[in-house]
Amino acid sequence: DAGRSEPWSTNFDLYAAPLDGSSPPKKLTENPAWDTHPVFSPDGQKLAWVAMERAGFEADRFRLMVRDWPEGESRAVTQSWDRSVADFVFAPDGQSVIVSAQDTGRTALFRVELEGGKVEPLVEAGHNTSPQIAGDALVYSHDDLAHPAEIWTRPLAGAAGPGAALTHLNDTKIERAARGDYEQFSFRGAGGDRVYGWLIKPADFDPQKRYPLAFLIHGGPQGSFSDRFHYRWNPQTYAGAGYVAVMIDFHGSTGYGQAFTDAIRGDWGGKPLEDLQKGLAHVEQRYPFVDGERVCALGASYGGYMINWIAGKWPDRFRCLVNHDGIFDNRMMYYATEELWFPEWEHGGPYHDNPAGYEKHNPVDHVRAWQTPMLVIHGSLDHRVPLEQGLATFTALQRRNIESRFLHFPDENHWVLSPHNSLRWHEEVNAWLDAHLQGPAAARP
Length: 445
What we know:
Blueprint: E1 15-16, E2 26-27, E3 35-40, E4 46-51, E5 63-68, E6 75-76, E7 85-90, E8 96-103, E9 106-113, E10 119-123, E11 127-134, E12 137-144, E13 147-155, E14 164-165, H1 171-176, E15 182-188, E16 194-200, E17 211-217, H2 236-240, E18 244-249, H3 258-262, H4 271-286, E19 290-300, H5 302-313, E20 320-324, H6 330-336, H7 341-347, H8 355-359, E21 374-379, H9 387-399, E22 404-409, H10 419-437
Parallel strand pairs: 17-18, 17-19, 19-20, 20-21, 21-22
Antiparallel strand pairs: 1-2, 3-4, 4-5, 5-6, 7-8, 8-9, 9-10, 11-12, 12-13, 13-14, 15-16, 16-18
């Protein structure tokens, strides 16, 4: 309930409202940051929810909170656990909860005791969300980089271990799809920190061959591609087309502790770029089947920003680039986006108070160094990174006589959501990669 300050506020609160409307809703939380996802214990004696501590920041750590209902004191159960709680459900006895949380490139399920905050892993592999209780069983959604979501189950009690699928709605279709094996790797990134990534092999993999590489850069920037079956940026689409796909969880990514996530603030073009550079070098050295001369970098949102930043700060490395809804000019981005709290947190306040924070890593300042062919994609209904950012990127490319193409979706927002448009998106992106990477190894641009 932020009024006119909503564009620069992340203050969500919890309210209790009588079902008969006999009195106004009562505010339950005074935290100036984000409170959300209220859940009652089975006996109705406790209320639990998740809350951030820092106002104006969408990727702060969600702590599990609990209070006796209705007038108890609020307390943080997971204050000492350096992971961010997503969805959760009470155990039947009301003494613990089952939570999902990102953890080192995966989304795992954990049991958290309300007294003492002890955390125990239950399901660690893949991407596991929406936990529910059915008798003495835990039921949840599970997917991974090779399989779309199905309903899985495992015993509610017991040590960590894999569950088993209850549904098989996608088995027939997924067996017809061209998919590649995958694995996680790690290397020393910026500051000597351990950085993780994923590599997906081509569906037709032959260890004696060398393959071109699709180098995917996630958005957020506080996000993670992780071990999940994504329905927009799915690396298996590139594996099925004959490419190796690589995804690096650079500084700023989630699931590796809050300090790692916070490290990108004020440093958009610093440590993340170094991680990408060192990660690509590591992949070339470790995997002899990767043809380092045939590489295209692709990214959306912050990933699109990074594509523009790479174009100016790493201009001689890639055969081609793909930029979806990326930021071209940090100054105009600030004055045009509907989420003012986002750039204000990332770059140190409003632009008019701290222009240096925005100009420190501004792609528009390095256009003279651009030389790599780029496919630019943007939707007219994108109010997060408005259309003009994509048009400006394309104008810069055209004016510098750099091979470029602009794909415009007048009916899409920050994402491509309709199936028909998604097919067109993938056709255009794959055609762009094929045109620049499927030929013999040659000098980089």
